[in-house]
Each structure stands twice: as structure tokens, then as C-alpha cells.
Amino acid sequence: AQWLVEESVTPAGEHIYYSYLAENGDNVDLNGNEAGRDRSAMRYLSKVQYGNATPAADLYLWTSATPAVQWLFTLVFDYGERGVDPQVPPAFTAQNSWLARQDPFSLYNYGFEIRLHRLCRQVLMFHHFPDELGEADTLVSRLLLEYDENPILTQLCAARTLAYEGDGYRRAPVNNMMPPPPPPPMMGGNSSRPKSKWAIVEESKQIQALRYYSAQGYSVINKYLRGDDYPETQAKETLLSRDYLSTNEPSDEEFKNAMSVYINDIAEGLSSLPETDHRVVYRGLKLDKPALSDVLKEYTTIGNIIIDKAFMSTSPDKAWINDTILNIYLEKGHKGRILGDVAHFKGEAEMLFPPNTKLKIESIVNCGSQDFASQLSKLRLSDDATADTNRIKRIINMRVLNS
């Protein structure tokens, strides 16, 4: 038999809880080769929940099969129940039945059939901080898995990661592809070898700071710059690991000075990148949340000048948007830079602006207005105009002010 872990606990009372889905035959063609098979054995990992708000020394499963615990984090494995459209953030709760793979197969390791009919289509990371984030289940990151499906052999062909910020902005996807194989060894007595594409390149401290910001530092840094609550311990660990601090218990002044130097290095690394000819970039916001009511008011006042205290992430790619599109016009001499190869995740189409970028709201086109359909059509977000109309609530035309 095979044992599946359901729960673990540390001496500090920190639990990890594992949930599984049982195979049920949904969306499976039960005729032909599939007729008469027993599908009841297979289990698929569905959720991994951790970060119990209250420590507990004993396993929850000792007292209840479905413990009522306040989990702070949930990793969801989705098999097609929530939809895989990259433009639509999936919900925490499954909306549909799962999809069937075209090439089902069986395992007989334990003397009976274990039939596999599913493919993991995406992995979703949710945070549960309703008071801080304004909603019970907040999507933070998403790994989309794409397959070349056929009845003979299905193969994974692409993996894309999407990150979601607290204001609803969805960062451009990251496309992970296998590099081509190296060339064959040279023959005929020539012992020269091709130069490795992984040769070490010396980088400035500023570029290294920018690269780390792109990878994982953006959340802490931007919360700090905006004056929002931020994980101070994580910030100190970052500064210590990158030699901006010499102790993990700095004074308030030492911490602020180190953060200032770190942020300045990120900005200098950004300004050292080549200028770009882009004249329009886009940013998607999810403004229709109670926690963002003040932000919504600020962004829906024509003529208002908005100063983003944090680094502002945008993209030349129009597809990665939410219910509100910021259509941002750029003038020559703007300070936005395409991260390109400096980005930690290669292939990410992101233009980053330094802190205190000024934007002026020139016009607002709301869904249902006379000009909405026309302007939405000009943006050409996707091939499905009806879906775009249902998804987009407003288009805000803005301009970056260089002074």
C-alpha cells in the first residue's frame, strides 16, 4: 500500500495540512478501453495549508478529520476546475469539474489498478489576511502549466509564473523554457571548446540590487516606500544577507539608513539601463475592493496628479491587466526602463519606473459610456471582445510627467 502524508507538526506547534481529491471519473469517456475499470484508488494532492494562527502541540487529525483551523497560507493544486485563462485570476473555490487527460495510464505496483486521468494545470498560492488585504482569499502567485496533449503521450511544454501584488496588479508572465542542448564535441584534433553561455559576468552592486528586487524584494521595498505595513524581520534579513547591515538587531536609525542605501542602489541600477523608445505602457489595477476605496477615488479624478512613492511596475504587454486599465503615455526623456536580461525571471516584459514617478490623469472611460467600446477595441486586448467588455470596468488615460 501507499501512505499519503496528511499532517505534520513541529515542536513549536506549526502544522502543515495536506488535502487530496479522489478520482471520480468526471469528464472521462467510459466506453471502449475505459469500460469496466476501477478508478476509486487514485488520490491527487489538492491543497497544502500551513501557517496556523494559533500554535498547537498535537496533530489536529487526532480529534477531527476536517479541523477548523485558521490557516494563513494555502497552496492549491488545480486540475482544471478553476479555469486556466492567464488573463482571469482564478478563484480560491473550484468553479467546475476537473478536466480529463487524453492519455490516461495505470499503475499496478501494489497488485491492483491505480488509474490516472488528471493533469495538474496550475499551482496557486493564496494568502488569508482579511483585515490587512481586504479579502479572505488573496491570490499572490500562480504557476501555469501547459501541455502538448495527445492520446499517445502528453508532454509538458511550458511553465509560466505570474505574480499578483496587493493592489491587484498582475506582473507580466515568466516563460520557462529548456535551453537548447550544447553543440557536440569538436573532432579532428581540435581541442578548443565553445565558450560556455553560463560564464560568470561581474555585475555592479546596483545591478545586483535591482535583480534581487525583481526576484523577490519588490513586495517588501514597495510596502516600505508607501508607508504600508511590511515584514520588518524579512527586510532586516534581506539587508543583512546583502551586506547593507552588519547586525540583525540594528537601531532604528541604522535600519533606515541601510534601507535608504539599498533603495538608492536599486534606483541607480535602474537608471543605468538603456533608454527605451516605448511611448505607451500599461498597468492593470484591481480597484473595486473595499480596501482600495481611497485609491479608487484618487484614480478617478480627471486632472489629478498621482505620485507613486514606490517603484512602479508597468508593461508594454497589454494582455496582463485587471478590471482597470491604466493607459500610460510616455514622453521623451522618461525614466522608465525595460528590465530585460537584468530581470531575475528571464522573459518578463516589465518596464520599471523609479520612486516618486508623477502621473497626470487626462481622461477616464467607464464601461457603458459612449466611447468605451471604441477605445477598448483600439487596445485589442484579446480576440474575445465580449469577454474583454465583461472583464474591464474602466480605462484611465494617464501621462508620465518628467519633471
TrEMBL record:
Query: Its catalytic activity?
Result: L-arginyl-[protein] + NAD(+) = N(omega)-(ADP-D-ribosyl)-L-arginyl-[protein] + nicotinamide + H(+)
Q: What are the ADP ribosyltransferase domain coordinates in residue numbering?
A: 204-367
Which keywords accompany this UniProt record? Glycosyltransferase, NAD, NADP, Nucleotide-binding, Nucleotidyltransferase, Secreted, Toxin, Transferase, Virulence
Q: Where in the cell is it found?
A: Secreted
Out of the domains of life, which is the source?
A: Bacteria
Q: GO cellular component terms?
A: cytoplasm; extracellular region
UniProt cross-references to SUPFAM superfamilies, sorted A to Z: ADP-ribosylation (SSF56399)
- What one GO molecular function would you report for this record? nucleotidyltransferase activity
> What EC numbers are recorded for this enzyme?
2.4.2.31
Q: Which Pfam families match?
A: ADPrib_exo_Tox, SpvB
Q: Give the UniProt family note.
A: Belongs to the SpvB family.
**Name of this protein:** Mono(ADP-ribosyl)transferase SpvB
Q: Which organism is it from?
A: Salmonella enteritidis
* Gene name of the encoded protein: spvB
